[in-house]
Amino acid sequence: RPATSCSTSGSWARSRARCAASVLEVTSFSLSGTPLLSRTVVERAEELRSDEDALRAGWADAKLLKVDRRGRVPVADGALVFRAAAELGPEPAPGAVFLGVRDERHVWAVRVLAQTGEVADLRKVGDALDDADADLMVSAVALLNWHDRAGFSAVDGSVTEPTMSGWSRISSET
User: Fold this and answer.
1) Could you give the maximum distance between any two Cα atoms of the chain, in Å?
2) Structure-model confidence comparison of residues 153 and 9, the more confident one
């Protein structure tokens, strides 16, 4: 605690008033680098989130990241493993979240019950992923976890449904 000219004698209120009027030494703070899981480089394409026609058209060639309930995703050789989104059907699957556009292709994430092959969570691979993979994995895990826990309105407790390609939830009641 930095030294001040505050006196602790007298009543608490008078001491507090004297302390509030005094100037405290401020210590500067800076990060030594970008936090490893705060790298944002993928185009979020917010303008597409409500454009169902564009999302449906992009789904045919989209990449899909499968995330299990423990936040694990398929990995190989230090990178995320994406599947073809069209494997789930001809249009965006219910519950899928649109993460953005990478290498001119839409990228989506979906919750799965089980994974096959090598999988890892953010604690295991977050620091080793390139900026784009880290960005996509953090966003996918965060959005899907939020959807798992935000199924009801904070206003009235009614059921909410995903909208804006998974970036929002709405209640038909409120």
Assistant:
1) 76
2) 153
